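Most newcomers find our protein records easier to grasp once they have seen one. To make this concrete, we reproduce a full record directly below:

…
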Amino acid sequence: MKHLWVRFGCFITGYNYNILRNCSEAAFKSVKKYTAAMLIVCILWFFIGFTFAHRYLSLSLPGCMLAGLLSTVIIVQIEKQIILSINPSRLLLIFRGCLAVMMSILGAVIIDQILFEKDIEIAKISYVSEKVDKMLPSKTEELRKQIAALDTTISKKEREKDNYVEDISKRSTTTATTTQTATKRVPVKTVTSSGKDTISWKTISDVVVASTLVPNPKIALLPSLDSTIGAIRQQKSLKENELLDIKPALEKEMKASTGFLDELTIMKQMLSTSYVALCFWILWVLFFLFIEMLVLFSKLGDTSNDYEKVVLHHMNLQMRRLDALGKGFE
C-alpha cells in the first residue's frame, strides 16, 4: 500500500514504477503533478462524453458510462504523448496546441448546450416555427390533393348509386327465364323389306321454358356501395382533420426530432444576438483551453529530472551493448 498514489500516477502517466522508486523526491513530485493535471482533464471529458451520449445518442446508463470511459482513455493516451517525451519536438508541441484548441471548443459547445438548455428550449420555439412554415405549404398541398381525389371517388360512386336507384325505380322486378330439358324414349315402328314390322326406340328431348318475376339484382348491390361510400367519406374526414391539425403536428414532430446540429444552430443564433452568451461561451472555451494545456505547460516548465536521466542512461547502455554485440559478430 506504500506509495499507492504514485503507483496510480505511474499507471496513468506511463512511468515505470520500478525505476521511479529508486529516484529522488523531485521525480515523485513530477509524477504527482502530472497525475493531478490529467485527472482534472479526465474528469471533465468523462462528464462530457457521458452527457453527450445521454442527451444526443439516447444511450442507457451502461452505454453512457462506456462513452465517458472511452473519452477518458482517449485523453489519457493523448496526454501520454507529451509526458513520455523527454525532449518533445516543436512539431509535437504545435500539434498538441492545435488539438487543445479544437478540444476546448468541442467541450465548451457540449457543456454550453447543457447549461443553456432552458434558453435553447425558448429559442427552439421560434426556430421550429420557421422550419414548419417552410414545410407547411408542401404538406398542405399534398393533403389537399388527397382530399380532392377522395371527393372525385365519392362523386363517382354516388353517380353509380343514382344510376342503380333510377334503374330500380323503373324496374323493381325483372323476368327470369329458366329452361329445362326432359328426355324420353318413344317407340318408332318401321317396315322392313320383307314386310315385317319392327319397333325401335328413339330418344326425344322436350324443352320447357318457364318465366318468373324476381327482384332487380341491382338492389343487392346498394348496401355494399353505401358501405364503400361511407368508408371513403370517413377517410376524407380524417384527412380534413389532419389538414386542420397539420401545423401543431409538424411542430410536435420537429421538436421531438431536434438533434445536435439543430441545437448547435440555435446556439449560434443565440451567440450572435446576445453578447452575454457570447462572453460566457468564450470564458468556457478559455477555461477548457487552459486545462487542456495544463499538462503541456507543466512539461515545458520542468527541467530534466533524475528519472529521465535514468531512462536515457539505460537507453545509452543498451545501445552500446547492441553496438558491441554487432561488432562482435563482424
The chain has two domains: 4-122+260-329, 173-215.
